[in-house]
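To assess whether the prediction recovers the assembly geometry, we first specified each molecular entity separately, as shown.
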Amino acid sequence: MSKRFAPGFRTTEELAALQLKGLKWTVNHAYNGSAFYRRRLDEAGVRPDDIRSLNDLRRLPFVTADDLRDEYPWPLISVPFEDIVRIHASSGTTGKRKVMVYTAKDIDDWADMFARCYETAGLTREDRVQICVGYGVWTAGVGFQNGCERFGAMALPVGPGNIEIHLQFLVDFEPTVLCSTASMALLLAEEAERHGILDKLRIKKVIMGAERSSDIMRAKIRELFRAEHIFDIPGLTEVYGPGTGLDCEHHCGIHYWADYYILEILDPETLEPVREGEVGEMVYTTLKKEGSPLIRYRSRDLTRLIPGKCPCGSVLPRHDRISGRSDDMFIIRGVNIYPSHIDEILSQQQGIGSEYQIHLDRGEDGKDYMTIKVERARGSGPEQDMELSRRIGVDIRKSLLVRGIVEIVDHGSLPRTGSKSKRLFDNRD
Ligand code: ZN
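The predicted structure of the complete assembly is given in tokenized form:
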């Protein structure tokens, strides 16, 4: 099957030329279409004509989530209202939502980007795709749906729904692909097992987004569904929505759609580029977006670029899975820790379940204490708890240089929400 949604460039030089063209277009478009961008660029003393090479990107000012909230309800809008065909907003619960506007071409580009995700996952038009993410003002459901239809597979738009409906659809309509958060995929797999219907399912691929997932969770999901592949789909409302890239079947990094946006990985403190392969904040500049273009948008998401070439031969660059958010970092006893560090350590352990929580407390002695609650593996009793807790404690101290109290709890006793699980509880102050 020919790749209908493959990028239109073959070499890194061709990509660079394409990015420069897109960057010039975007700066010009934003400067002339948006009062916000014009003000920002004027303040920074940059005119659209000043953009002559990709290095000139670094002369451009940043846009932050605060800017989007300050400019509510129409931040970054760069086209007349008559050209806007849809809006989306982030699903944030506090304060003003981040609103993005879309022209017909933006919707079209997003569908192509997303169709490329399904193509990268090796789907065919015979596939049936059960979409278990939310539909509404946020970008999730409709993104998966439009991409599926653009690609030409069959969409089963269930949404988060209730478990009974999901299980019934899984049996009756025999979907081959499941799109959901990791928590939801695990919940469905465990429920299908409990109902004794795993043998009736035909799920071959699981595409997971919106939430970081531990290796242990992924292994469990793959094992229960007997799925061939689990893919990670990144994305954010600010850059159209989900579908900004996908790992290929080699699973060694996420190929990202560098013909639609430039991804910079910057040190969140200095805002200078990190060294190749080091973790930093993902900063986006879109190349084609009309409604709400992005110029150096600070996403707060952390990842690293993966140097070298993927075994699949694709010329598309790769970034790693998102390892957390720069604002999720917590400091305990002077050590900076990202929840993903704990996640990595737990992923190496045998004999534990897929859920965990990190609790931070201030003791009566005024010192900070970190307690990590970890579930026992399914079917195992408390006999091993002491040894398990000791072993994990040692690993944490060795890798993070800070002590943690490890508490082993019953399998299934930590909440499974079906959406994003809250894992960090900072009870200090
Ligand atoms: Zn690849």
